[in-house]
Amino acid sequence: MGVVASVALYLLVYLLISGFITLCSSKRLTVNRNKGNIAVFVAATCLAVFAAVRFEVGTDYINYCYIYEEYSRQNLSGILTNGISIYNLGTFLFSKIALLFGGQKVFFGLYAFVISYMAFKFMEDDYFNLSLFLCSFLFLTSIFSDGLNIMKQTAAVAITAYALRYVYSKQLLKYVITIAIAMAFHVTAIISLPIYFLYNKKNSEGKTSWKMIAAIILAGMLTANIQNILGMLGGAGIFSRYAMYASDVVRSGNNYSFILKFMVLLFLLMFRQRFISINPKNQLLFILMMIGVCFEFSGYFSTYVKRISIYYYNMPSIILMAQLPFFFKKDSRLVVKVLICAYAVSLFILSYVILRQSDIIPYQLYR
Questions:
Q1: pLDDT tens-place string over residues 124-176
Q2: Rounded CA gap, 55 and 98, in Å?
Q3: Percent helix, strand and coil across the chain, each rounded to 5?
Q4: What is the pTM (predicted TM-score) of this model?
Q5: Rounded to whole angstroms, how far apart are CA atoms 270 and 6?
Q6: Quick one: which of 16, 90, 246, 329 has the fewest CB in 10 Å?
């Protein structure tokens, strides 16, 4: 399939899924919430099929084929003793399920299902007054598309995004359990644990100002000293595999994602007071975005380390942008939605066609 046809296919699938989940979800059909749950399940299943039937789509596609073959032959004791370790239990489970129900294609489909289902369920929560269509489309053109390549980490990101519901409801045990599940797919999900303590349910606007400053300063310090930190973690059990990144110093002026995310953050900060006055829960999202941008800065010297920013930046930025249309009068909202969709499409083309990130284009069917 050619480049143009691939882009058209991706965008068509994403538009159809976004439209379907919007029309059928409980955001619109509030009479029966089960209809929303069914819509999420159907949408996630369709995306799972779309991901399952691809062939050599994603830079790490072949690596995941090898991972599936290796894990599907292992037993649980082998996983724990042969150097694969506990933080890959999620991948081990998916490999075993796939082996029983169809093999490699099911393995890829399971990852896509978890990524999309967890994200859609968080979007459906009633914490924010947002455009579900915009939220879904922004998610699909960015996070989900990345998940066709870095599957394990994107699954962890989606699960930690879902865990934000327990931050807002202040259920620490459920939050820790959910993060532990995310770590079963990618150990870097542990970086999300501090998020719980950045939100104060009683006074989410007034009492988080000092937390915002402290969190940003801490994130800046971690970013500046990340190589030393990784070196110290080298001998710490489950983190030992990341010690090699301590010596992976790549000095580069081409950190375009940092520049873009910084610009988006500045744009949204223009509306910060309005965001918070409408819904104080948005304060936490701004804190997370700022921390994410700090971590993104590490891309100037380590492309691997900056990936941890996706736990803090990606979903909060999507949730905030999906609320923007409601800042305008009804007759202007459609224009705002079209402009945000145009931004999402432009970013998709820039990232995956021009810069060839993740190598998900061209799309090819499984042979």
A1: 776 778 888 999 999 999 999 999 999 999 999 999 999 999 999 899 999 99
A2: 17
A3: 75, 0, 25
A4: 0.86
A5: 36
A6: 329
